[in-house]
Structures are given as structure tokens and as C-alpha cells.
Write a structure and sequence with these properties.
The protein has 11 helices and 5 strands. The strands form 2 sheets. Strands 3-5-4 form a 3-stranded mixed sheet. The chain has a domain of 132 residues. By secondary structure, it is mainly alpha-helical.
């Protein structure tokens, strides 16, 4: 399951990791928290066989993050979980992590298992693993997981625009701790460095920034996903912002195309 593999004494890597986490970190068990996470994970995976579904755990980690690994578990830090006010925000985080499984990204960790096993302590391991995700996946895979995760949310009848309100929360927190770079990236004036019409210098700057941080800046990431919604799910947008034909278009002719094309410790 989930690109898992045998690790030691016949135990799979995913189960070994889960055991290590349980021994060193408290997991949330309050009914309100568990009810919500089970509701969201079930809705996102409603069309999957029970044996193929992933389970979300909420470890009490101070870092605002979420991550996954080979196996059947997703880890959604309690600090991030408490910041998410709606099911839609939770769904986007979980959808992003499911996407890493659907897209085969977690299989890339197979070669790191021995190094991970030698780390002293599950908390340090969790933080290292989160950093390792960014190193192994890279910016493109994180963007792919963002888009696929948003598609999963829309397919489960979550309102896409409300899912993206997660980035408002991440932005507020980044500004609060003074991480302007994570919000704005290399160009404070632009939220659209990935636009095909951006200058070559802008594209070079954002490429270097992504390689350093592992993600797009928060505002660019949100803008990329807004455009993805407009292109792939125009019928799911509120009527007031659905792409429409230009007023100059002939009424009998085809509609004009709406040209379009993706952080604090970000979701990995």
C-alpha cells in the first residue's frame, strides 16, 4: 500500500515510521478533531477501495506542516490543524498529501530508509523527513501535488476557492513571523512569476528561489491554483467569476478561450 516496502524484521517502512512516531509524539485524540479529520479523509477517498485508503494522524508537532511517507499514513501537525477553520482548508492539506501517493512521489524515499532509521528520535526524524521530502520531490512535484490535490477536493464536491483560503492562513502566519520571502518570493510586486509572458529574468529568479526553498512563494502558489481552477474546473466556479466570452465575440461563434495556466513550513 502507498509504495510501502519491507524494512526490518518483516515490518513495512510505513508501519515502522508510525510506531516510532507513536513512541515519541503525542497524537491528537479529542473527539472534535478526530471526527473532522475522519469526515474529510472519507469524503476525499469515497471512490477508493477501503484497503487503498490512507489514514490521517495528527501528531502534536510545533511545526506548521503536513507530510506523508510510504505506507498508509498522512501526518498533519496539530499546529497546522488548529489553524484550519474549515473542512475545505483541511481537505486541501490532506488532498495534497494523497496526491504524493497517487503521483508516485513517495516511492522516491526507498533509498533513504537506512539513513532515516539512524536518526535519534522521532521528532527530529519527522522534521528531517519533512526537509527530505522537499529535497527529493523538488518544486515541480510539489506544484503537481498542489494541482492534483485540488482536483481531488473538487471531485469530492468541496468548493475550490474555499480550499485555497488555506493560503491566506499560511500568508498571515508567515507575515507574523517576519518571513516576507515566503510570501512574496523574489519579486514583491508580482504574484504570477510562472506566467508564460513573464520576463526571462523573472523566470530565472523564481527558478533559483524554488530550488532554494522547495516551493513557490505563497502568493504565486495560490495564483497558480486559481488559474488551474479557471481552466480545469470552470463549471465549478461561482457564476460571478466564471470565464465568459468577450463582448466583441459573435453570439453564434465559439466562446473565446480564457488563457490560463501554482510555503511557513509549507505542506509537503
Amino acid at each position: 500500500m502507498g509504495h510501502d516496502f519491507q524494512f526490518e524484521r518483516g515490518k513495512s517502512f510505513g508501519e515502522w515510521l508510525h510506531t516510532q512516531m507513536l513512541e515519541a509524539v503525542t497524537f491528537e485524540d479529542a473527539p472534535w478533531a478526530i471526527d473532522r479529520i475522519r469526515r474529510v479523509e472519507s469524503r476525499l477517498q469515497g471512490n477508493r477501495a477501503t484497503i487503498s485508503r490512507l489514514t490521517v494522524e495528527i501528531p502534536w508537532l510545533e511545526e506548521v506542516t503536513a507530510f506523508t511517507a510510504p505506507g498508509r499514513y498522512i501526518y498533519f501537525s496539530r499546529r497546522l490543524y488548529e489553524l484550519c477553520a474549515t473542512d475545505e482548508q483541511v481537505a486541501f492539506v490532506v488532498g495534497h498529501e494523497i496526491a504524493h501517493h497517487d503521483l508516485g512521489h513517495v516511492a522516491l524515499f526507498h533509498g533513504w530508509a537506512d539513513k532515516i532509521a539512524r536518526l535519534p528520535g522521532a521528532t527530529l526524524f519527522a522534521l528531517f523527513f519533512h526537509g527530505l521530502e522537499r529535497l527529493v520531490y523538488g518544486p515541480q512535484k510539489e506544484c503537481d501535488a498542489d494541482r492534483h490535490g485540488l482536483d481531488l477536493c473538487v471531485s469530492a464536491d468541496y468548493e475550490g476557492r474555499r480550499c485555497l483560503e488555506l493560503f491566506d492562513i499560511l500568508e498571515q502566519r508567515a507575515l507574523y513571523i517576519g518571513d516576507l520571502d515566503m510570501v512574496y518570493g523574489p519579486d514583491v510586486e508580482s504574484d504570477d512569476e510562472l506566467d508564460e509572458n513573464a520576463s526571462w529574468t523573472t523566470k530565472a529568479q523564481i527558478w533559483a528561489w524554488q530550488k532554494k526553498r522547495g516551493y513557490l512563494p505563497i502568493r504565486d502558489r495560490r495564483q497558480m491554483l486559481r488559474k488551474h481552477l479557471e481552466v480545469k474546473h470552470p463549471d465549478r466556479l461561482p457564476a460571478a467569476i466564471q470565464p465568459t466570452a468577450s463582448p466583441s465575440d459573435d453570439a453564434a461563434g465559439p466562446l473565446g478561450n480564457s488563457g490560463a495556466i501554482e510555503g511557513p513550513s509549507p505542506i509537503s
